Known about the structure:
The protein has 345 residues and is an alpha+beta fold. Helix content is 29%, strand content 21%. The protein is built from 10 helices and 12 strands. It has an 8-stranded mixed beta sheet. The termini are far apart. The mean pLDDT is 95. The site of one iron/sulfur cluster has 13 residues, from helix 7.
Amino acid sequence: MRVSYGISTEKMNGLLEELGKTYRICGPRRVGKYIRYGDIQSVEELVYQEKSHFSPKEVFYPIVQTLLYFSENQVRESEMEDEREVILFLRPCDINGIRRLDTLFLRNGGKADNFYQRRREKVKFFLLECAESFETCFCVSMGSNRTDDYEAAFRFGEEGVKAQIHGESALCGRLEGFLAGEKECAFAPEFVTENKKTVAAPDIGHRSLLPGIHDLPMWREFDDHCIGCGGCNTVCITCSCFDTTDVIYHETSRDGERRRAWSSCMLDSYSTMAGGHNVRAKAGDRMRFKVMHKIYDFKVRFGEEHMCVGCGRCDMRCPKEIHFSETVDRLAHEVERLKRGEESL
Ligand code: SF4
Ligand code: SF4
């Protein structure tokens, strides 16, 4: 089913109110000086004209989450605080990014992460049309500018809302029921076909190039420049790393809970092992790890697209104005030099 309607903002607000009786509805909204994902009730709350600073992942992959409760003799899995299905307004790059997260949490090692899966399977996508690219986006270079994976698509504007129902699910049926009788139109979402920024991921090809990439002098420039704040990971739709901590409630008991919280491969503590040895002690080592994970390792391991979807949020976020996109471009040039047997710049 693909049927489109042109409706007023008031009608759209009525739709959100109706859906909000059974679904949790989330989208990008303003929180202080940031645009961040959370609950919305109306079109007026939804920030659709700008790119969000943070990704939608925190809706279903919380920053801190209790996994288990334990006592001396028992372990009990945590329950979900909110059992409702979630409608998530998001852009094509983020839908593609969530597919990368699904790969990491549900396919990696052949065993699904239950704590991710139980929330993720409740999420339904409402596409926010991106007819024009934002400043730091490079989704076209990463092939994540398009998607067909959504229940409905929306274009918001001063003159009202265009909506396309795009599927046969129960939610699509509910949308159809609510919008029946409204004015049908020819709306189909447009997708960005060009970004101001283009990025060429390196064509690494053979593993024999890896030692040379490991030793490139360019990584050493980050040793002093990057402050290891982890901000770039925090905003990334495809970063999935976490730490687990056991919290004991009282000194004299063994009752407690196991929590997991987002972590970051750019923190120096992240790669410190038992005994204090740090396998990536310098910021440049961590940068190398992050960049290679995003534009080489993931693809080699899972045979899909690159992990990075080119949302450009990390470039917006870095307090030291380190641009991931330019680092990838630079690496691509260095790889070509390595292939020709030339010295690095
Ligand atoms: S690495 Fe940067 S551009 Fe790529 S998906 Fe993550 S935040 Fe977006
Ligand atoms: S690259 Fe920038 S945002 Fe990322 S850890 Fe370094 S200083 Fe922080």
